[in-house]
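Q: Hi! First time doing this. I have a protein sequence and I read that you can turn it into a structure. Is that right? Here it is:
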Amino acid sequence: MTETLFYHLEKRSLEEILPGLVEKSRARGWKALIRADTADRADAIDSLLWTYDDQSFLAHAQGGDGEAAGQPVLITVEDGNPNSAEIAFYVGGAAPADWSGMGGLARIVLLFDGRDGAALDMARAAWKEAKGAGHDVTYWKETPSGKFEKQN
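A: Yes, that's right. Below is the predicted 3D structure, encoded as structure tokens:
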């Protein structure tokens, strides 16, 4: 089944973490899908990916902007995988509607804010659903230095 990583954000924000994870995915040659919980968050991520680094940007589009299939990084609030991504990032409380239907992806990354009780509850429920669907689930937590380490 799909490798599924749960990233527990405690020190840094989503805006600090997401661009680097997407860059690493693109360096592997993977297309990426970023599934946001709201249109406002999708707009904020769109702006972030154009401006997070003065020296570069991540080529991307939002759902509805041009041909989704050709996008290396697609930001959406809709279910599905319209750009045939190998990796999907779920942010802001978004989670797959059907964990058993995620087999086309190499990896799923669910990022959640550990300082938000509702986000923790959502992540716990998503963990149970992902495990129940047979995914290879791992939990990653920030160390005091801000690096992520896999927890046992």
